[in-house]
């Protein structure tokens, strides 16, 4: 059986505007972030997209976004949280370890600062989203999460060249996937940017 996952990035936050790392630390949604989440709500309503279940990261920026997008019950899951950037949390992104285009991430660059490796985050996201989608009656699911952890999940299913050159994941972007119950594989379908 094929199911559908709508994996959404949270709305714009204060730290997004200030270009600060925001992994395990949090900052509030901006007026733009709130407005964009409301546009997503309108998009889902106008296109008659309803969800069997909704999930969000435990972090407030994701929870606040989900509550603006839908009024249905939801569950918070720690497995959906953002990449931990260690001592670089809350710091300007220009201090980040260098991005390696050959692997499409900073790899283990945050580990030296007490953060997570890219592989650990990617594995956690794949495991958590698979666990969600294999559940009974989870035919159409909404998940609200974060930019870096969603990027690493996407990197597991999309060729690196396509990911780096053809997929734009802004705040409130919705990544649509199909999920095959038998193979337990996700297929990226498209990105929906309503803002």
From TrEMBL:
The lineage of its organism: Bacteria, Bacillati, Bacillota, Bacilli, Lactobacillales. Transmembrane segments: none annotated. InterPro entries: His_Pase_superF_clade-1 (IPR013078), His_PPase_superfam (IPR029033), PG/BPGM_mutase_AS (IPR001345), PGM_Phosphatase (IPR050275). This is Histidine phosphatase family protein. It comes from Companilactobacillus futsaii. Gene3D superfamilies: Phosphoglycerate mutase-like. GO terms for molecular function: phosphatase activity. The active site is at residues 10, 82. GO terms for cellular component: cytoplasm. Substrate binds at residues 9-16, 61.
């Amino acid at each position: 059986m094929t199911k559908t996952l709508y994996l959404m990035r949270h709305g714009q936050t204060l730290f997004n505007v200030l270009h600060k790392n925001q992994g395990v630390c949090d900052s509030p949604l901006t007026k733009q972030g709130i407005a964009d989440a409301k546009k997503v709500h309108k998009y889902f309503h106008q296109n008659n997209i309803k969800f069997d279940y909704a999930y969000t990261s435990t972090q407030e920026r994701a929870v606040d976004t989900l509550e603006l997008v839908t009024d249905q019950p939801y569950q918070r899951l720690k497995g959906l949280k953002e990449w931990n950037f260690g001592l670089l949390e809350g710091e300007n992104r220009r201090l980040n370890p260098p991005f390696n285009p050959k692997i499409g991430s900073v790899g283990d660059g945050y580990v030296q600062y007490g953060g997570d490796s890219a592989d650990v985050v990617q594995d956690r996201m794949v495991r958590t989203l698979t666990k969600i989608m294999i559940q009974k009656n989870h035919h159409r699911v909404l998940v609200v999460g974060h930019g870096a952890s969603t990027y690493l999940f996407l990197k597991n299913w999309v060729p690196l060249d396509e990911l780096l050159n053809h997929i734009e994941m802004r705040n409130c972007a919705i990544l649509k996937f199909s999920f095959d119950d038998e193979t337990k594989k996700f297929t990226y379908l498209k990105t929906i940017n309503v803002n």
